[in-house]
Amino acid sequence: xxxxxxxxxxxxERFESAYNESMYGFHDESDPAYLTDIGLxxxxxxxxxxxxxxxxxxxxxxxxCLKVFNEMTYPSWAPSIAGLDLQSIVAYVRPKARxxxxxxxxxxxxxxxxxxxxxxxxxxxxxxxxxxxYDSEVVYHNVKKEVADQxxxxxDFESALKGEYAGIVREHxxxxxxxxxxxxxxxxxxxxxxxxxxxxxxxxxxxxxxQSYFRFNAPGAGQFEHTMIILEKDxxxxxxxxxxxPKYNVSNLHAGCVELYVGDGARxxxxxxxxxxKNMYNLNTKRAIVGAGGTIEWVxxxxxxxxxxxxxxxxLKGEGAHCEYTGITFAGAGQDLDTGMRVVHAAPRTTSNINxxxxxxxxxxxxxxxxxxxxxxxxxxxxxxxCSSLILDSESRSDTIPTIRTLVDxxxxxxxxKVGRISSEAVFYLMSRxxxxxxxxxxxxTGFAEPIAKELPLExxxxxxxxxxxxxxxx
Length: 475
What we know:
With 475 residues, the protein is of the alpha/beta class. Helices cover 25% and strands 33% of the residues.
C-alpha cells in the first residue's frame, strides 16, 4: 500500500483570523447560550472511551479536546444559537443493536426505519457499499466483494481506529480540522462517535458510489460522527452522505466532522442531502485538501434543521488542483440557514467554480457566505462564483456575503449574485395550462433547482424534488 497524503494545510493559516471574522460575523457575549457549557467531565469521556474501547492515544486526545473546549469562547457564527441548551445535550446515545452485515439481523424497529428511508433498496440497485448509523453508533456496514477486491477499504471509523489502518487514522485524524479551529471542533474531538473511513488505492476507480446514512432518533441528544476519506494518486470515488431525524420539541445538535484527502490526479465527488428535522442545530465542519491535478466536487442540498452553520472548505495545495461546488439551500418557516463555501488557492494555476442557489419561504432566512483566498503561491489561479436566490414572499430574506483576498496580482476572480421572485406572469401562464397556483409555483421552484438535481444520482434527485414539493406545501 502506498502512503496516503500527509501534508497539513498550513498554507492557509495566514488567513484564519480575518476569515473567522468574515465567515462568522459577531455575537452578543451576554447571550446565555454563549455562557453555558455542555455537561462534560473527564469521567464522562472516560465512560465513552470504555464503551468504545479506545486506544490510549485517543483517550488522551479526548481529554485534551475537552480542555480546549472549556477554554475557548463560542465562535461568533452569524445565526443565533440561543435556543441550543448545551447543558442538556446528551453526548452519547448507544443504539440497542450491535453492528451487523445483514439488514435482517438488526432489531425490527431499526430495520423498519431504514426500510422507510429506502436504504436497503438503494444498496441492492445502485450502491457499492453502505454504512448506516443510528444515533451514536454504526449499526450496519457492508461493501461489495468486487470493490473490496480492488483494495478499497470502507469501514466504520471505530474499526479503522483499532484495525490494520490504525496508523493511517492516527496520522490524519483532525489534521484538516484542528481541535482549536473553533469551539465545536473541540467538542467534536472530545465526544466523536461513529462515522466512516474510506481508503482508495492508487489508480483505482470505484465506478459505483459508496454511501453512509445517519439517522438521528434520540431527543435532546447530539450526533458527532467522523468521516475520513483518503484517495491516493489517480483514483476516483463518488461518496454519498444522507441524514434525517424525527422532529422533537427539544433541541438536538449535529456537530460532525468530514476530512477529505485527495491525492495528485485523484477525483472525489462528495454528495450530501441534509434533511434534518426543524429542531436540529447543524454545526458541521467539512474540509478537503487536494493535491496536484486533483479535483474535489461538492454537491450539497440543505433542507432541514432549525439553524445551520455549514461552510465546506477546499484547500487546493497542488499545482492545477480544482474545486467544483454545487449547492442549494431551502429555508422555510423558523429556519435560519447560514451556508457557503471557502476555497484556498495555495498553489499555482488552481481553479474553482462555485454555483450556489437558495430558496426562502414563509419567513425563512438564507445566508450565503463565500471566501476565496489566494496565497503567495497561487499565481495564475482562477475562481468564479455564481449565487442565485429565489424569495417566495415578503416575509423571507436572502443575503450573500462574499469575501475575496489575494496576495498576488496575476489571478482572475469573479463573483456574481442575483436575487429574484417568482414571476406572476409565469404563474398565470402555467395556470392557463391547467395547473393549480400551488403546483405552478412548485414547478417554477423545481426548475430553479434543476441544475443542482442533475448533478445528483437519480434517486437523490427524486428525493430532492420531493423535499422541495413538501417544503412548498408547508409539510
